[in-house]
Amino acid sequence: MIAKLTPFLACFALVAIAPVASAQRGGKKPIDKIFERLDTNKDGKITQEEAGERWARISKADANEDGAVTKDELAASMKNRKRRQK
């Protein structure tokens, strides 16, 4: 009886755990979370008005100095910062 239940229980455990593992692993990338929170008008750019007091830090990523930070600019800045920390 136990031998018959073991494969069933193993499959059940995998199915039950899969969504939790997926949520932990997948999720949103940090840059997506930043833009979701700060890009209030959803134009793909974060401006000083949207960033508020965070602008001093975020503006460092404004590579073309147009007064707005795009996802690409922020991603490049984050990548460079990680590289410098190593």
Q: Give helix % range.
A: 55-70%
Order of helices and strands: HHEHHEH
Q: What name does CATH use for the topology?
A: Recoverin, domain 1
Strand order of the largest sheet: 1-2
* Average pLDDT level: 81
Which term fits the overall shape? elongated
Oligomeric state, counting identical vs distinct chains: single chain
What's the total number of strands?
2
Q: What Rg do the Cα atoms give?
A: 21 Å
Q: How many DSSP helices?
A: 5
Report the major sheet.
2 strands, antiparallel
What structural class should be given to the helix and strand makeup?
Answer: mainly alpha
State the end-to-end distance: 55 Å
**Fourth CATH level, the homologous superfamily:** EF-hand
How many structural domains in the coordinates? 1
- CATH 2nd-level architecture: Orthogonal Bundle
Q: CATH class, anyone?
A: Mainly Alpha
Low-confidence region ranges: none
The portion of residues forming beta strands comes to 5-15%
Can you walk me through this structure?
The chain has a single domain (2-85), classed as EF-hand (Recoverin, domain 1, Orthogonal Bundle), CATH 1.10.238.10. The protein contains five helices and two strands; from the N terminus they run ααβααβα. The chain has helices at residues 2-25, 30-38, 48-51, 55-58, 71-85, and strands spanning 45-47, 68-70. Strands 1-2 form a two-stranded antiparallel ribbon. The longest helix is centred in the first third of the chain and has 24 residues, at 2-25.
